[in-house]
Amino acid sequence: MGELKTKKTELSVEAFLKMIADAQKQKDAFTILGLMEKATKAKAKMWGSAIIGFGNRHLKYESGRELDWLVMGFSPRKQNLALYISGTVEKQQALLKKLGKHKTGKGCLYINKLEEVDITVLKEIINKGLVT
User: Fold this and answer.
1) Could you give the CA distance from residue 108 to residue 31 in angstroms, rounded to a whole number?
2) How far is CA 106 from its chain centroid?
3) Taking residues 25-48, what's their average pLDDT?
4) From CA 3, how far away is CA 18, in angstroms rounded?
5) Distances in whole angstroms, Cα of residue 63 to Cα of each of 59, 67, 132
6) pLDDT tens across 62-118, in order?
7) Domain ranges, residue 48
8) Is residue 74, in this structure, part of any structural domain at all?
9) Closest Cα to residue 52, out of 9, 89, 4?
10) Are the C-beta atoms of 32 and 123 separated by less than 8 Å?
11) Cα 52 to Cα 87: distance, rounded to the nearest angstrom
C-alpha cells in the first residue's frame, strides 16, 4: 500500500490564498477559511499543495489501514470550491436542498461561487459536519 501524498505541511495558507488570480474566488476562499476556523476552533494548515485543512483526526479503516487526516477542509480549485465536510452528502440532504447551486461527490461539496448559495445554510452544513 502506497504512502498518503496529502499530508499536513508548513506552507502558508494566506500566501496560498493570495495566489488565487480570480478576485471573487479569492474572496470566497477567505470567507470559507473564516467559517471553518470558527466552526472547528482550529487554525488552518495546508495539506499537500492545494488543500486547506482544519484539525486533525486519526482514521483507522476495517482493512487495517491507518492515516492522519483533517477534520474539515476545502480547496479553491480553478473550476469550483471543493469543501471536504464529513457526512455532508449522506446526512445533510435536507440542508443541501436549501443550499442553492452546488454539486456533491463522495464526502465533497462543490460550489462555484458563494453568491450562488445561502451562506446561512452553508454555515449550518459546516457546523453539522463537525458532529459526524
Assistant:
1) 18
2) 13
3) 96
4) 30
5) 11, 12, 21
6) 888 777 778 899 999 999 999 999 877 778 899 999 999 999 987 799 999 999 999
7) 13-128
8) yes
9) 9
10) no
11) 18
Q: Whole-prediction pTM value?
A: 0.88
Asked if residue 83 belongs to a domain, the reply is yes
Question: What is the Cα–Cα distance from 118 to 5, expressed in whole angstroms?
Answer: 34
Burial grade of 108 (CB within 10 A; 0-12, 13-18, 19 or more): middle
Taking CA atoms, 54 is separated from 4, 31, 85, 105, in Å, by 18, 14, 11, 20
CATH number at residue 87: 3.90.1150.200
Q: What is the edge-to-edge ordering of all strands in the sheet holding 44-47?
A: 44-47, 51-54, 72-76, 81-85, 108-111, 103-105
115: in domain: yes
- The number of domains in the chain is 1
Which pLDDT score is estimated for 89?
74
The answer to whether residue 4 sits within a structural domain is no
